[in-house]
Amino acid sequence: MSYETLLYEADQGVATITLNRPAVLNAISQQMIEELQATFDTVKDDASVRAVVVTGAGRGFCSGADLKGRQRVKPSEAPADASTAGGERLRRTLNPLILAIRTIEKPFIAAVNGVAAGAGCNLALACDIVLASDTARFGNVFTRIGLIPDCGGHFFLPRLVGFHKAAELMFTGDIIDAHEAERLGLINRVVTHAELVKQARELGERLARGPTRAIGLCKRTMNVGITADLAAVLDAEAEGQGLARQTEDHWEGVQAFLEKRPAHFMGK
Questions:
Q1: Is 10 helix (H, G, I), strand (E, B) or coil?
Q2: Could you tell me which residues come within 8 angstroms of residue 109 by beta carbon, excluding any fewer than 6 positions away?
Q3: Domain 6-208: which topology?
Q4: How confident is the model over 115-156, as pLDDT tens digits?
Q5: What class does CATH assign to 212-258?
Q6: Is this structure's pTM higher than 0.70?
Q7: 185 and 140 in contact (C-beta within 8 Å)?
Q8: pLDDT (tens digit per residue) in 83-121
C-alpha cells in the first residue's frame, strides 16, 4: 500500500515508518493521522512484523500538529460547543494513535532525527525506546500558543523526568537538545546523526529476533505497572508469566539453555 505522507517498508522482521512531509518538518496533518492509523493496523496484524521503527524524513522528526492546515475561529465568534468539539476531535484523531503505540504488543523504537516538538515530541515519548540524533531537539511547546500538551504529554513527562522538571518543561515550552534529554532520562541514548537509522534498525532486528511474544507481554504488564499499585502489578505479572510459559519461544529458550546453544525464537 502506498501513502502520501508516510514511507513504509518491512524487512528482516522490522517495519520502518517514516513521517514524510519534510517541507513542513513532518507536521501532522489529518491525512497523516489516517495513514499512521492504517500503518499501525498493518503492523498489528502482520505476524512477520516483530518490531517497529518510527522516524522522520529530512531534518525534522515531527514539528507537531499542522497549524496552517487548521480552520481557525476567534473565541468570541465560536459556537457554544466549540471546546467540546475540540476535545472530541483529539479523541477521534491523535488519541487512538498514542493508544495504538502503547497497546500493540510489539516493540516500538523512535529514531528522532531532528526537532520533535509538541505532538511530535509526545509521539516519540509514547514509543518503548527512544534513540536520538545528536542534532535532535525536544519540546512540549504547547504553551507557546496558549495550549496544554496532548498526545499523552501529561502522562509521559512526569514519569520520565519527575513532577517538577515536567512542570518546568510544560509551563515554559522550552526546547532542550538531545544530550540534555538523555541526561534527564527523557530518551535512551544519543547517537551520531549519520548512525541513527542504522542503529535503530539494528536494535529493531535484535528485538525482532527475540521472543517477541514475551516482549509483547512485558510491554502489556509495564502499561499496568506505571499506573497500578503493587498488588495489581504482581497479579498482572502472574497472568503474563502464565501466558508466556505456554509459548513456543519459552520452550525453545529453555531447550537452548539446557543444550548450551543460541536460542532461535519465532515469535510464537
A1: strand
A2: 51, 52, 53, 54, 127, 128, 129, 130, 131, 200, 203, 204, 207
A3: 2-enoyl-CoA Hydratase; Chain A, domain 1 (3.90.226)
A4: 999 999 999 999 999 999 999 999 999 999 888 999 999 999
A5: mainly alpha
A6: yes
A7: no
A8: 566 678 888 999 999 999 999 999 999 999 999 999 999
